Fold each of these.
Amino acid sequence: MIALARRAAYRTAMFLVALALVVVIWETYKALGPVDGGKLLGVRILPRTSEYAMPHVWDMFSRFGRPEVRGSDRTVFASVLSGAWFSFRLSVAGFVLGGVIGVGLAVVMARFKLVQRGVLPYLVVSQTVPLIALAPLVVSWGGKLEVGPLVWPRWLSASVLGAFLAFFPIAVGTLRGLAAAPAASVELMQSYAASWSKTLVKLKFPTAIPYMVPAFRLGASASVIGVVVAEISTGLKGGIGRLIIEYAREATGDPAKVYTAIFGAAALGLTMAGVVVAVDVFVMRNRPKESIT
Amino acid sequence: MKKRSVRVAFAGIAALSLLVAACGGSDDEAADDVAEETVEESTDEAAADTCTTPTPVKLQLQWFIQAQFAGFFAAQDQGFYADQCLDVTIVEGGVDIVPQTELANGNVDFAISWVSKALASREAGADIVNIAQVFQRSGTLQVSFKDKNITSPEDFAGKKIGNWGFGNEFEIFAALTKAGLDPAADVTLVQQQFDMVGLLSGDIDAAEAMTYNEYAQVLEAVNPATGALYTADDFNVVSYEEAGVGMLQDAIWASGERLASDAAYADTAAKFVAASLQGWAYCRDNVEACRDIVLAKGSKLGASHQLWQMNEVNKLIWPASSGVGYIDEAAWNRTATLSQETKNLEGGTVLTAAPDAGAYTNDIVTKALDILAGLGVDTSGSSYAPIDVTLNEGGN
């Protein structure tokens, strides 16, 4: 446990150092770089350093503390936080949905090779559909769904799009993991006359975990991306994606503001991935160390 | 290749769903007459009777909450919709939400859209009808710094011209065509973002701007040379309305099929238009109250920006000589003609043929104006005078 805590502290420290390095590079370039950028043969190769293109880091952070619109008590920080919390919940819903679908698909594909050959190419194709083309369609279909008193809420469309991005890495990762059980172990299970489902639960899922965890981590951040893009695309109110657009509209007069929302989105993605890692650490706590990847 | 074919497939699905929505209703002449009778009866009753179960109505906006749509929010806030026994849900737009499509798909009952864009959708098969022309004038500008010397569309030649795309650029193309310029060859078209940074940093010589929004944004930005805000003296402004190529913009669109076949819907439409126009009349007389309504609805744009927007939007609506919302045939025809004559980048035109007679109707708005006359609402605003608005930095 102590080793684990030390490793966590080291990682946090390195993360902060990397962050500080980004800030230093940003500000150094802003101080020394050409205000109007650099052009080579008419093509801009160096970015501009003007206030519009690169606001000071401290401007971005001090913007957090100031009111969102003048005269209101609500700070930008409060808005970004509530937006991130809203999107977080949608992302979790999308992640859970994507996880269930992804693992379900992987199990079916692992069980029936025919299904795998038939379905897998379509999964790959599904990920080439641009999300922004899909978003209005999902909203439109959802708007028509009504089962008795249950009406499709608009936020569910965003979660579905999060799930749409999340299920793919989860399905592929889990599928690989399920095939990773050593042949000797599989033969042992067969010698016990264990059923397919018993083998799945007792052997294949445990050996699949090292493959599934990175897949879930990818899925978690993909779900955030799906939700944020869907919010932007469909104008869903309350989340961080909508804030990015709202603040971007004000970039003419208040260029630092939009960065606060972008930081919020980044923090959201990190939090989602962090939750998966925390679950991983918890699940793997009794495992021999070498199996932790 | 795969990606492309999938896109095509999705476009096909979208087109199919439009078709299905459009083909749903058959021509039902008989129902039409019945509809009109029922409408008159029930509108007479509406004012007098108490309302037991309000009719649910969904309105699709083109964009987020802002003073551009203040009249609808005012009608909701001031209870004008409730007075007409309507329960109106206002649905905000988004980057990829097309109001005409939402309407044609049956997701909403009414939608706000610019006329040229909606006519293009209609030509593509969406059965939508303009039932009230809220904005009588076009609010599109092309804004440039004084030193670029761009004072008319002729001066666009050889310049970097910003535009938003998505059908918001038709007036620019119309002005270019009228000035004898080829949009594909004689100017450099630059895709504009949601902000005016492109203009301020010099990537764009002349940027597209709405009087009520983007133009205010540049006037809310700090001029690095002086440390104070930019002023109107720093810019040249080409107004497409004044250049003679203004196209009709925000209008209320309804489903043509439902208007023809559903008497209750036609009745609701008249009441909805009446209450909405009452909201707009309220905003004409109570500019600051309407700003507060919009701000209270959760607009993220600041107070001075919203007040400016409210004032500029009022200028596009008032005075309305034939009555607010009435579709002026001359302006309609101008929009339709420009849409047919204007070449776009691909060399085609926005519309290939003149819109059919069913593309707009003044029946609904006439009934609405009758309702408003009964309520004593001033629907022409002949004594309207705009207010002066001072913009603060960042629109706050």
Amino acid sequence: MTEEKKNTNAWQVALQQLDEIAKRINLEPWIHKKLRRPKRELTVSIPIKMDDGSVEVFTGYRVQHNITLGPAKGGIRYSPDVTLDEIRALAMLMTWKCAVAGIPYGGAKGGVICDPEKLSLGELERLTRRYTSEIIIMIGPEKDIPAPDINTNSQIMAWIMDTYSINKGYSVPGVVTGKPVVIGGSEGRQEATGRGVTFITLNTLKYLNQGIEDRKVVIQGFGKVGSVTAKLLHLEGAKIIGIGEIYGAIYNPKGLNPLEVDKYRRETGSILGYKDSEDITNKELLELNCDILIPAATEGQITEKNAPNIKARVLIEAANGPTTPSADKILESKGIFVVPDILTNAGGVIVSYFEWVQGIQGYFWSEREVNLKLRDIMDRAFHHVLELSLKEKVSMRTAALMLAVSRVAEATKIRGLYP
Amino acid sequence: MLKKIECIIQPFKLEDVKEALRKIAVDGMTVTEVKGCGKQRGYTQKYSPEAPIRLLPKVKMEIVTDEEKVEEIVQTIQSLARTNQIGAGKIFIIPVEDVMRVRTKERGRIAID
């Protein structure tokens, strides 16, 4: 493997990150060794009858990285780019994310190599049901609880819940989260990640002794996370001066109204051409003169190329891995306050946790209750990471990982090694 | 989770308690002069079951704080408000669902920081 290829392999990057943290916290070698390997990995073949009568065989994975703190938790993605190494890396990331949030879960991830855009609804349903059956030996409310991820949604979660339940002979809502509310989904789950990002932003400003009123915010991504974040921050009094989506971005130094932008997008299919705004490129968007930059789209958006031009003082990572490691170093040297993804976007998994708890109890909460409890956990997680970062004089990213790895390590040590 | 610590103490203990709380970084509090009685119905000398209730002057102090600080604050108040006599007071710990800072509209924990 060439050096470059090795660096871009997500699993190698995740291992490298763990090794660095292990050194910092003096992780016991046996625990380090254990954490470097996923607990379980399953590769399955998924034969599906296509609409034209032919049979296609797809490949799917489910990886459980660690289950020391509780059942494994993590999304399932459908994408042509899925690889086992990517799933492993994301499973490890879930272990850390749950540990930072302080919720009783381990980490897992799943994926199917397929292009959902080329599948009919029927094919997608058969694929989901067969994949669920193939990984059924691994999942369950007390074992491993999947959730939506790239190209999977609440309908797919409903099919997983149904397939599992049919196999058991009774309804098991707690086997999967991100379900529609009518079959045991949680109020507030759709907005959870964006709401969590908003809480983190408010906490960050509080720490930096700045108010939210008229703060200039740029948000890249206007999907499930970005649009909710934009709306909530707008309602808090922030000035959303730039919004980006896949086709480009819009800019108005006087502030955009995200509620109106969302309406416009629903009418036209894109945010571009919105009144009172100027169309710009995503590259220009990231380099706008603003106070807070929130990448809420995909990974690898802030690189060593554009990092030197970023003018924001605060970077809130709503997307997974939006900053490359080399860009991260540049941002740090520029004194930009970066709140890492595993802390910022934990809102989704936290409300997934609530959904699982509600499903197991068979008692469902109001949206207000969900939101208050989410804020409570996010505020506390932010403060724990901030305290550690100030105490150890490390970045918020390093502090979050140190906190996560030490929590898992402590539990591992106290449980001991079997036999 | 946020909690409200509501305590009723002897008025002459207020200064000590207030200063001790400042030392453990409690900055916000609301103090009210109140009247009240406990089990003795306001009588400190002899037991008089037929007499009407007497309300004695007390001070009520209210502090909203994060759960993590509750024990420290409660211990501080207790250690300074004690008089070794009846009528020294009570400390109540009450869950707070939400808070809003009027000036900034901040909610929850950041509204009291």
